[in-house]
Amino acid sequence: xxxxxxxxxxxxxxxxxxxxxxVQRVLAILKPRATDVVMxxxxxxxxxxxxxxxxxxxxxxxxxxxxxxIALIAPAAKVSIIRDFKVAQKSRVEIPKRIEGLVxxxxxxxxxxxxxxxxxxxxxxxxxxxxACQYCERVFTADEMTHI
Length: 148
Ligand SMILES: [Zn+2]
Description:
This protein folds into 2 domains: 81 residues, 2-Layer Sandwich (Alpha-Beta Plaits), CATH 3.30.70.140; 50 residues, Aspartate carbamoyltransferase regulatory subunit, C-terminal domain (SH3 type barrels, Roll). 10% of the residues lie in helices and 41% in strands. It has a 5-stranded antiparallel β-sheet, covered by helices on one side. A 4-stranded antiparallel β-sheet has the order 6-8-9-10, with no helix packed on it. Strands 7-11 form a two-stranded antiparallel sheet. Strand 8 and strand 9 form a beta hairpin. The chain is elongated, with a radius of gyration of 16 Å. The mean pLDDT is 89. The site of zinc ion has 8 residues, from loops.
């Protein structure tokens, strides 16, 4: 049986190769606006990953910043910007060296969890996706993070 295809979009962004089961977490980061048309595909078969999720957002081009924030939970994701049904731009995600105000510090004693302030994490190691909190200096893996 042929795999199901998500409808093509005219203009917008396609995020492919999201690890299966993480589509909701990616959406939580992207915070779609009320007017955004979002299509989700879950558990597609993939040669590289066995199972993957896909998101298509009609009428919205993600910024590089938004693209990179996805890297925390979908490090192998591929992002395509679509214009007039054609791929205008393709990029891989890359975890930013510095992540501001995006994720909460998992350390309950960290000052960022006690005061209303912006969290700042610095990337320690991009292969293990280790991030160090600027305030409590503890190191966490990207999978431990919860998005604000
Ligand atoms: Zn901290």
